[in-house]
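About this split. The held-out portion is used to measure sequence recovery: a designer receives only the structure tokens and must propose an amino acid at every position. Recovery is the fraction of positions where the proposal matches the reference. Here is one held-out target exactly as it appears in the evaluation file.
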């Protein structure tokens, strides 16, 4: 709503600042952090209680704590987004020289009446917010259920939400992608884009969810990832001069995506104040799934799906490799190999060296290091340090070596 002040006041005086995406980004980040910091401890008694994790080391430590805090985060985020995230569809302001609200509404009306592809006026940022709210609600249902949902049920909703989000991003239009090591760009059809986007989002959703086993780990790593994506979307792909210099497709609404990153990052900062070891509250699936979805959406909005391995390398390695191990073991089992943890093959079956190595490593990877004697605080700090040190190098590598 603040974005409209620049038109309602005829761009007079300080109201012109309402049109600055940077100011809206900073304001939204600070406001969401303050709201979550103040209201979260006053509301978490209404949340369901964690069931504990019997299959993980020290899994009973979280038992009985308030979980599903993601629903509180999004309840507090939404009014902030209404304030700072532009409602006017991207590009409408400049269409036909629109410089006032009446001119903007007239442009939208003419486009809807005379253009068959009226859906191109859909505000993608707000549609993604709705997808995140749905992912949050699905996760909250799992958090408060007496018995945890099975993998197939979760995967069904993950695929459904990811497909819808990818369709929102491309709006059934061909999309331009850029990749590492290639100077040019690639145009893919909308259905190819949806397929790629769905895979990326499923990876980020499940990797973030699997990383939510150590106090502060998933939230901290996601905060770093969203901060990096916000900087890339605002200052690289969203900046026409910088994008042209780096031979990257320019994203006109990159600053809008950065605002969404900033608001959610601020809320995460407020949440982490209480989720630090020893935690007082847990985000649950109601928080980890929409946050993972947002990371995947930001990666696809940047135009380079491989950025998921750049801005969230530790998240993907920590959680995503567990999924890869499970699929690999199932494949080896179908090929006739023994996948048990016994050193010798059972029942005369062959034993693969790859299977032996995989069985020695526990996933998510933070569980493996806990078994090795690392404390929760050590895991959090060391994982954060590795991601923060590796990520800038990977970003420069991907942007410049093309």
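Reference sequence for scoring:
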């Amino acid at each position: 709503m603040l974005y409209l002040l620049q038109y309602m006041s005829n761009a007079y005086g300080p109201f012109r600042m309402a049109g600055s995406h940077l100011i809206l980004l900073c304001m939204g980040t600070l406001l969401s952090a303050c709201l979550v910091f103040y209201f979260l401890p006053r509301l978490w008694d209404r949340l369901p209680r964690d069931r504990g994790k019997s299959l993980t080391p020290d899994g009973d430590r979280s038992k009985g704590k308030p979980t599903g805090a993601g629903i509180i985060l999004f309840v507090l985020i939404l009014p902030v987004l209404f304030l700072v995230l532009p409602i006017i569809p991207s590009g409408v302001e400049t269409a036909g020289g629109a410089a006032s609200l009446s001119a903007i509404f007239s442009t939208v009306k003419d486009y809807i009446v005379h253009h068959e592809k009226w859906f191109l006026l859909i505000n993608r940022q707000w549609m993604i917010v709705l997808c995140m709210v749905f992912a949050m609600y699905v996760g909250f249902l799992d958090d408060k259920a007496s018995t945890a949902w099975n993998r197939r049920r979760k995967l069904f909703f993950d695929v459904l939400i990811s497909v819808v989000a990818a369709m929102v991003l491309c709006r059934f239009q061909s999309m331009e992608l850029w990749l590492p090591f290639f100077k040019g760009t690639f145009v893919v059809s909308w259905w190819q884009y949806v397929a790629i986007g769905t895979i990326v989002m499923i990876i980020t959703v499940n990797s973030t969810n699997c990383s939510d086993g150590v106090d502060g780990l998933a939230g901290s790593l996601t905060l770093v990832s969203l901060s990096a994506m916000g900087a890339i979307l605002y200052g690289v792909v969203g900046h026409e001069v910088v994008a042209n210099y780096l031979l990257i497709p320019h994203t006109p609404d990159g600053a809008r995506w950065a605002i969404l990153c900033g608001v959610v990052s601020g809320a995460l900062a407020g949440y982490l104040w209480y989720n630090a070891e020893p935690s007082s509250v847990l985000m649950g699936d109601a928080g980890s799934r929409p946050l993972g979805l947002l990371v995947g959406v930001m990666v696809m909005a940047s135009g380079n799906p491989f950025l998921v391995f750049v801005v969230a390398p530790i998240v993907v390695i920590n959680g995503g490799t567990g999924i890869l191990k499970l699929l690999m073991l199932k494949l080896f089992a179908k090929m006739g190999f023994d996948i048990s943890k016994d050193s010798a093959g059972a029942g005369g079956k062959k034993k693969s060296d790859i299977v032996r190595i995989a069985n020695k490593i526990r996933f998510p990877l933070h569980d493996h290091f806990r078994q090795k004697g690392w404390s929760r605080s050590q895991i959090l700090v060391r994982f954060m340090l590795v991601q923060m040190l590796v990520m800038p190098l990977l970003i420069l590598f991907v942007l410049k070596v093309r």
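Annotator remark: The chain has a mean pLDDT of 86.
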